[in-house]
Design a protein that fits this description.
Distance between the termini: 21 Å
Largest sheet: 6 strands, mixed
Number of domains: 2
Order of helices and strands: EEEHEEHEHHHEHEHEEH
Strand content: 15-25%
Shape: globular
CATH class of the largest domain: Alpha Beta
Structural class: alpha/beta
Length: 261
Amino acid sequence: MTGSLESTQPAPATTAAPTDVSGNGAWDVEVRGLRKSFGSVPVLRGLNLRIAAGQRAVIVGPNGSGKTTLLKILATLLRPSAGAARVAGFDIRSQTSEVRRNIGLLCHQTYLYGELTCQENLLFYARMYGVVDPPQRSRAMLRLVGLEGQTDTLARSLSRGMQQRLALARAIIHEPLVLLLDEPDTGLDQRWADVLRDLVAERAAQGGTTLLTTHNLERSLDLADRVAVLNGGRIVFSARRDDLDVGSFKEAYSRHTGAAA
């Protein structure tokens, strides 16, 4: 499979070499033989992955395929059962603090404090990350996500879509090297989905790396330089975005997962 994100063969050892995503030798995400089981139930089965600096990679897959588990492991929120991974140049097992300082994470849990206002939430995270001039940066982030009119609104009072936008501002407030986005388009209308697309593209132009998951195959093509399908804990298909259209991607998705696209 040309240009595959992962070998088509299972990786039995952590030393299995991931297939290159691009010719760039600088890897912001590098995963080798990653496995994760919950009790006797395997979720990731020897996954290999490398993402170059400045790349936008999108992973799609059915529910239960391991997308959220992968991102949580890369964010050091879960420990793998086996295998190794480095994010932003740091080992996820032995350099947890360094990984966390260099990533931005957006997932189903917003990590917002409901009893704090929008601005207070962003000020808290800006100060935690040592951002220069937290008030100015917080105001800029609120404008970016269209919440400047909700500065003093409690986070718990926001709609789901607004909470998602505030959580995105939280994730990027410290300008992380690597952005991990788990279904970031949840609750977003088309306008804000377009803003998300432009933000990810701008980050890529500046050398920032983004790995995200989504259920929306059409939208994934707007967000990605490269797309991959995760099924049964392994990457079963990958391609450059420029080599796909919506129809061919849906056909490949159905063929490799057995699920309707």
